[in-house]
Write a structure and sequence with these properties.
heterodimer; A: about 325 residues; mainly alpha; two-stranded antiparallel ribbon; 13 helices; 2 strands; about 70% helix; B: about 350 residues; 5-stranded antiparallel β-sheet; 11 helices; about 25% strand
């Protein structure tokens, strides 16, 4: 416990960590603000302006003539009998909503949109925190000094990993709670009702997201303890996420989706995700469209990500325990 | 329990490099008794730091065994580390933390009270600068902070690797006095250095290594005496030439007289000189020892090691060693790469 509090203090005192933690709050706040702005309700002026455009279109001589023709010769328009409403629909008389084309806030849809983006950003930042936290010890050489005061290397590794995990979990949970709390407040302010079961799904996603953020931090930390360099770790992470994806798509082709990092992250966050696969069975009824998708379950995604993390942790522990410390 | 604070047996460290296997420490048997200041002398790259790093668990030996306070390390290192303070190579702290923050973290790691941080800062003279960032410190201040860190433990064994590097003359004297005082107070100090005068002034005993191998060990006084030569004065040059021939025939190393009646003979038994010369009817006018300084001893030993003659001198360590007398002037230092 003593070592844990020491490492927690070390983490708190690192300026780079403070900056990254600030980003963890700032970036989602900007996303929230952007979403709030882009889905803001229409102002009276906007509605008036749209209505004016609709009226101008409806009152144009061409439109009046077409409407009159539809009502008098409905067969020419494929209508028998005709009503004003049917004619309005058939000839495409302008509607108010055509001129009010801004997307409105849809809280449940945000789970798979900005909600996923926030979790991804938090995971990346937590990974950077883990990387810079461990990398600083190696770059400054202070790791050897720390081991002169606590030579039990596994304890040192575990204490540092625990604070990175805790930081990720608390930050992830706090930020996601604040983000969804903010969206809830926004929905309330706009008199939008979100069904209770949607909130349940959001809560579950956010919980798994916070855990993912914490484990991403541990992953970054473990890799840095293995490579003993912030730069090397960042290089490898870039190579794995970008280069690895390209290699997988090249090698596996249409079968790559199952093994992509993003697919597995979504499977964990959304409790399963559908992905494209040529191996997917098609329905026997030929009239039905074959979607060619399979479902990647939460367990599948968790096993994939957990496997990657386990490899990083085992390598890191082996390396830190066995290799000489400069 | 052994009265040796540091003990290594057949200690070996090999590194794999692109050019092949490099032996940094070769079957080193090191024995440092409790109390006093023990010098650990060797040119750069001789294996001093590697040996220290192995003792402290920072590097693992290829083979051999090590003991600190009689406990096998690295397995029992956690049991003894609380009694060991160490500065290995250059001071290594977090550059963005202040000196005090760095010490605070280390003190809290071992559960030392905050007051000990204050005391350590005061002892090394960093009061007033302790809240400055470490990266703003001069090399001397960094060195002082490293020594302050060792004092957080109240150590019974202090391992100092080049502790006066970067210090100004006053700082060097201060550190040497501190080391000497700690040694007199019963703390065992292993002082690794390539500054020969430092070892000669401060240490009671010393180990000299070269190319990772033990070259000599023992009390500093005895090490100096071990290679003492004798100045032999006879009546005239002709007698000196005869004496030179006789002594050489007896297997002694003699510097023949270039002119005059003076010879220099290397031996650890001056009686062998008088006995040999009396046997051929030559009687001495004067026989006096020429004391070598540590530089001479060191250079002789390391040169012999380089040439492959493998000189190895071992002198039993006394129970209560007395410090070696201080030379009048600061001695030479070995420059990087010298050897």
């Amino acid at each position: 416990m003593r070592l844990f509090t020491v490492e927690l203090t070390r983490l708190r005192w690192r300026r780079a960590v403070i900056v990254l933690l600030a980003c963890c709050f700032l970036v989602p706040a900007l996303i929230w603000a952007g979403l709030a702005w882009n889905t803001r309700p229409f102002s009276d002026a906007e509605v008036r302006d749209a209505q004016a455009q609709v009226d101008a279109q409806i009152n144009s001589p061409e439109m009046k003539h077409e409407l009159h023709r539809c009502e008098t010769h409905p067969r020419e328009f494929g209508l028998t009998p005709s009503t004003k409403e049917l004619c309005t629909e058939r000839i495409g008389v302008p509607q108010l909503e055509w001129y009010l084309y801004r997307e409105q806030l849809d809280v449940p849809a945000q789970r798979q949109e900005t909600g996923l983006a926030v979790i991804t950003i938090l995971a990346a930042l937590a990974m950077l925190v883990g990387t810079t936290f461990a990398g600083h010890d190696w770059n400054s050489g202070s790791m050897s000094n720390q081991l002169l005061f606590e030579p039990r290397r596994l304890r040192v590794w575990a204490a540092k990993a625990a604070v990175v995990f805790l930081m990720g979990l608390v930050t992830g949970a706090a930020v996601l709670a604040a983000y969804w709390g903010g969206l809830s407040a926004l929905a309330n302010a706009r008199d939008l009702t979100v069904p209770a079961h949607e909130w349940e799904l959001i809560r579950e996603s956010a919980g798994r997201g916070a855990l993912l953020v914490a484990l991403a931090g541990v992953g970054g930390y473990a890799l840095t303890m293995f490579f003993r360099s912030t730069v090397a770790t960042l290089g490898v992470l870039f190579a794995v996420t970008v280069g690895g994806t390209l290699v997988m798509v090249t090698v596996l082709g249409e079968y790559a989706d199952r093994w992509l990092l993003t697919t597995n992250v979504m499977a964990v966050v959304f409790d399963g995700v559908e992905y494209y696969s040529p191996a997917a069975p098609c329905a026997e009824d030929p009239s039905m469209t074959c979607s060619q998708t399979l479902t990647l379950t939460l367990a599948d995604g968790a096993a994939y990500l957990g496997g990657l993390l386990a490899v990083a942790v085992v390598l890191s522990l082996w390396s830190f325990r066995r290799r000489d410390v400069p | 329990m052994s009265d040796l604070v540091i003990e290594t047996s057949g200690l070996r460290k090999e590194f794999r490099t692109r050019k092949g296997l490099r032996v940094a420490v070769a079957d080193l048997d090191l024995a440092v008794p409790a109390g006093g200041v023990h010098g650990f002398l060797g040119p750069n790259g001789s294996g001093k730091t590697t040996t220290i790093r192995m003792l402290l668990g920072l590097a693992s030996p290829t083979r051999g065994s090590m003991r600190l306070f009689g406990q096998a390390v690295p397995h029992r290192l956690p049991q003894v580390m609380g009694r060991v303070g160490a500065v290995v190579e250059s001071p290594k702290f977090s550059p963005t933390f202040s000196g005090r923050q760095n010490l605070d973290l280390l003190a809290r790691t071992i559960g030392a009270p905050a007051a000990r941080v204050d005391a350590a800062i005061e002892t090394v003279g960093l009061t007033g600068r302790d809240r400055d960032r470490y990266k703003a410190y001069s090399l001397g201040m960094k060195q002082r902070l490293a020594i302050a860190a060792t004092l957080l433990k109240d150590p019974r064994l202090l391992i100092l690797d080049e502790p006066t590097n970067g210090l100004d003359p006053a700082g060097i004297r201060e550190i040497r006095d501190t080391v000497r005082t700690l040694g007199e107070a019963g703390v065992t100090v292993l002082l690794s250095s390539h500054i020969l005068a430092e070892v000669q002034q401060v240490c009671t005993s010393a180990t000299i290594i070269g190319n990772g191998r033990m070259l000599a060990e023992g009390l500093v006084d005895d090490l100096l005496g071990a290679l003492t030569s004798y100045r032999v004065v006879v009546d005239d040059r002709a007698t000196a030439l005869d004496a030179s021939t006789a002594l050489a025939s007896a297997g002694l190393v003699v510097q023949p007289p270039v002119d005059g009646s003076v010879l220099h003979v290397e031996t650890q038994r001056p009686a062998q000189i008088t006995e040999t010369l009396a046997g051929v009817g030559i009687y001495l006018s004067e026989l006096s020892p020429v004391r070598a300084d540590l530089e001479t001893v060191f250079l002789d030993l390391t040169a012999a090691d380089t040439l492959g003659t493998g000189a190895h001198i071992s002198i039993p360590l006394a129970d209560s060693p007395e410090p070696a007398p201080e030379p009048a002037s600061a001695g030479p230092t070995l420059e990087k790469g010298a050897h």
